[in-house]
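INTERNAL AUDIT FORM
Audit reference: QA-55
Scope: verify that the stored structure record matches its stored sequence.
Auditor: D.O.
Record contents follow.
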Amino acid sequence: MAIFSYTEKIQQIFKHIIDIVFAMILVFLVLGIGVGAVKLFVNLLHIFEASGITGKYQQIITDVLTLFILVELSRSLVEYFHTHRLRMTFIADAAIVFVIREVMIGLFQHKMETSMLLALTAFLLVLGMLRIASILVYQKEKRLEELQQ
């Protein structure tokens, strides 16, 4: 029995350390979102000063999509504190937004090759299927929990 309580204590310490690390990551993500939002509004003011609009809009689109990624990652961490599990749907959402961001930037700059576009499209399809599968698994787990109660 002494070994069992010893391993439980180690697991509790591990869980506390993970909680602290995730809390620190969440704080930095929230600070990043705040700084990013302020930077977005500052860039918006520079649009009125610029003669051309193409370059500035590209920067704004990039900043907005980056903020979406940070929001999705922070949602994943907030959910972790409620369930002590990372939900795949939030992580898949962040990855999908990241790939879409890269595709949009590459297409807007006219720098994306056809092979890269096809590869990112296939990756996006896989991420979409992963997200759908994670939703189905989550709903199945939720139904099993309801049946057990």
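Auditor finding: record pair retrieved intact. The chain has a mean pLDDT of 86.
Action required: none
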